[in-house]
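TL;DR need structure tokens for one chain.
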Amino acid sequence: MDDEIQFISDGAGLAVLGDPTTVESFLASEGLPSKDLGLRRLKSLFGTGAALEQAGSEIAANSGRWVKLTPKSAKLVKKYGLRESSKTGFSTGVAKGKKGQIRGFVEFAKSPRSLLTNPAALAGAAGIMAQLAMQQTMDEITDYLAVIDAKLDDVLRAQKDAALARMIAVGFVIDEALTVRKETGRVDEVTWSKVQALPTAIAETQAYALRQLDAIAEKLEHTTKVGDLVTTAREAESVVREWLAVLARCFQLQDGIAVLELDRVLDASPEELNGHRLGLRAARQDRLEHISRSTERLLARVDAATGAANAKVLLHPTKSPAVVKSSNLVSTGIHDFHERLGIESGRQSSEARRWADAASEARVRALETGAKGVGAARSLGNETLGRASSVKDKLSSGIAERARRVRGDQEDAPKKAE
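>> reply
TL;DR here they are.
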């Protein structure tokens, strides 16, 4: 008998459903890491009696694994030709094969035992997939905070703003609720009552952190002197890192609230689960766009500071590279932050122009302008040769010869006058 695997993709992850052995063999052959989907939690969607018995039979016959949608796993969706439904927005399909060797032939599920033919089960699976995607982001943010060694609690304690001061307590309460959920497998009324009012405090903290980043961007925008840019860029290097850590923690806690909220809806009003999932997804995207606008603006100001420093590298051979170095560290930090939150960002770090490169360009331009080039080269020598002797040593022999003729003419002039 052919083995069968069912696929569900919601754009953020891929659920692989089927016989446990077949599913594990398939994922291993594709080299994809996965997490347990937790299909047993879907039983609450079917009420009691015959519906529950049928659902239990379907769930018992299937194993579910969740795979984060990455470029590699996205190729799998394309490989097996999943079809998107205009009604649900999900991409679904079924692949068949023998002895766990799944071929690329995909068809819509028609079996009465298939979860794909049960709207309630499909909506429930999508809700769980959304939770797993957010938990994946939360784990990556935890890794991010550990990697940058951000002492987040110290940052929050150092602030006098009330919203920031509440963040530590908010984090404790949400972490505790997530622990209870993990142990019990659900979010009861008592647990939900402790966390349902916390999003306001998180939003206040997020808004405060975004204002701090906007203030840094404005300061960079209004700083024009290279010497001042050095100071401003160095200050931004550490301060931006701290506020990105605060934003990351805010986003992590907001995802934590959403995970708890979906469980609460699944438990209390399962028929509303899909609509609630879509609403949370839209709200999450709005938060990402809001954060992206502020951080992209800061990146633009960092770019401008780098450009201004590079343009004046001849006059400031030590200060300009310092500005670019600090700016690149800020940019790298923002890009890492974007990656953890799933924000697309295409800017690459700038590279400081070396003094020798800039001086060489000036020399070439001087030589190309003929007589004006002599004056330009002399001016360059008067202003900068003390800092770049290589420019003086490499002036062309033609310019040197013309300079000697000029001096010779000046020496002959008194003799003719006599």
